[in-house]
Amino acid sequence: MLWSTRQVIKCQPIAKPLNVVRHFTETSNIMRVIEHKFKNHQIKADTETLIIGTFNPNSPNNPADFFYGRNRNNFWKLLPIAFDNEILNDKTKIDKIAFSNKFKVDFIDLINSVEVEEGQETNYDDNYIDSRVIEWNKIIPTLSNLKTIKKICFTRKTLSDIPHMKEKILEIENYCKSQNIIFTYLLTPARFYNSKKQEVWNNFFKQ
Predict the structure, then answer these.
(1) Are the beta carbons of 89 and 33 closer than 8 angstroms?
(2) Which of 99, 168, 161, 104 is nearest to 140 (CA)?
(3) 73 with 193: CB under 8 angstroms?
């Protein structure tokens, strides 16, 4: 047996490791515990639309300053257009929060923390993250405290390659049905933008 090192990274700012735990494994991989970059985000009490994502790693190479804030993500184009608002891709976190407050939209992700191999701290692939979750977000208890919530969406259309996330999101979907809350699976804002995707987003947010 060889030694393996688990390194725990807390919320930003990220500096040197805060805690190192040594344990036996069958390989010599260095494992890192990565927490959600916006784990302490507080959902507004008057939220009417909640957008659920998967995970946003708190790692040095993640430039996002807010939910869906990476450059190749079209979220802050799709969402504002759906509300007939100016595109916010290049705007500040303050601008995005102001928009969200105005339209009573807020954000939460399924996962609070994952354990990944060294070098995979910014691996955003859901099918990679799915089997490496060590703490799930408690979304249903959060929903039960949102008295004005009207609709919820998950920013992913397919679930076949993420069995653990699928289990969690189906629980949320069933909860929404029991509470007469609209629930839908949106086309992902990642990878590309086109008019068809925008139309799907428009239809959900304008209903």
Answers:
(1) no
(2) 168
(3) no
Q: Cβ of 205: how many Cβ atoms within 10 Å?
A: 19
Instruction: Give 42-62 pLDDT, tens digit per residue.
Output: 999 999 999 999 999 999 889
Residue 38 CB neighbours (<10 A): 19
By the 8 A CB rule, do 14 and 32 touch?
no
Task: Give the domain extent around 150.
Answer: 2-205
Peptide bond into 13 cis (omega under 30): yes
Residue 169's domain is classified under what CATH number? 3.40.470.10
Residue 9 has what pLDDT? 46
- Beta-carbon count within 10 A of 147 CB: 8
